[in-house]
Amino acid sequence: MKCLVTGGAGFIGSNLVDALVARGDAVSVVDDLSTGSKANINPKAVFYRESINNDLAKIFAKENPHTVFHEAAQINVRKSIADPLSDARTNVLGTINLLEACRKADVKKIVYSSSGGACYGEPSGKTDENHLVNPLAPYGASKYAAEKYLFIYSKLYGLDYTILRYANVYGPRQDPKGEAGVIAIFFNKLKSNQPITVNGDGKQTRDYVFVQDVVEANLLAAGKKTGSRIFNAGTGKKTSVNELIDFAQQVSGKKFAQVNYGPAIAGEVKHICLDCSLAKKELGWQAKTSINDGLEKTWEWTNKTTG
Ligand SMILES: NC(=O)c1ccc[n+]([C@@H]2O[C@H](COP(=O)([O-])OP(=O)(O)OC[C@H]3O[C@@H](n4cnc5c(N)ncnc54)[C@H](O)[C@@H]3O)[C@@H](O)[C@H]2O)c1
After folding, report:
1. For ligand 1, atom 11: residue with the closest CA
2. Is the pTM of the predicted complex or chain greater than 0.90?
3. Could you report the per-residue pLDDT of 268-294, keeping only the tens digit for each?
4. Are 9 and 17 in contact (CB under 8 A)?
5. Atom of ligand 1 nearest to the CA of 37
6. Domain ranges across the chain
7. Cβ of 176 less than 6 Å from ligand 1
């Protein structure tokens, strides 16, 4: 199948590109390399260094993709607060621009990477897809606005979509300099024998899902005519930052130089864990990787990389 992956030079996108190439798809990548890296891109994919905000007509005419996986985004929550216009430019306007290209090129399916953590805010009760969407930062609002445009394009033009609302994704190629990937940050600090600072008391919990599981969810979503649906993609298991510190030390066999506790980030969600029973029922998808196995694979990768 012919696929186009936006953000295919980034953490999740590049892992997805590898899986698509491995199963024999013809893959093209659109990425402006604003946070992604050329080194991440599978050499068998055709690479276009281009912003999703620019005219994509020539690329779509040349590649004629059947399915588009939309991973490109501004993903930094703090940056979205500091510069909400720039966040919306990429995440909202860039998505609309992409949808226009999809419509004109008669793309059959789009799989969109949304964010459970950013959309649900501080959840109350069961965090399934029916939970109130209540973003606490511009990033969540822009990711959610893009979801709504997908809905509109499906109604107006029959563009089939699947939205995956990821939990906290971790694994090989996550940027330790970004603010989103606490596991990448911790492993990088362990590797370079540096202290860590935890925001708050470390009792905050998250649902950490391994990148290969999220890739699998994308492949299953693309292969099914889901009738334009939204699915959570997490593990349904919560892990606190303090537990992560213990796990990271166990897996690496190293100790952090020092663990400091700083002030909690204002507005940060205290606890979130996604209910993913709908994805299991409708997509036949379930996260398979235990936190221990995922951390081992991530540590192995961290050790192999330089810097
Ligand atoms: N990492 C997570 O835990 C997580 C959780 C929920 C949702 N998501 C979503 O998953 C997707 C991928 O995230 P990631 O963690 O791999 O981030 P990432 O920063 O590694 O990847 C994003 C990619 O998009 C590219 N990009 C950014 N702006 C662009 C533009 N205007 N035009 C073209 N390319 C552009 C970047 O260069 C980068 O390669 C994003 O949509 C993000 O919102 C990630």
Report:
1. 71
2. yes
3. 789 999 999 999 999 999 999 999 999
4. no
5. 39
6. 2-170+208-234, 182-205+238-275+290-304
7. no
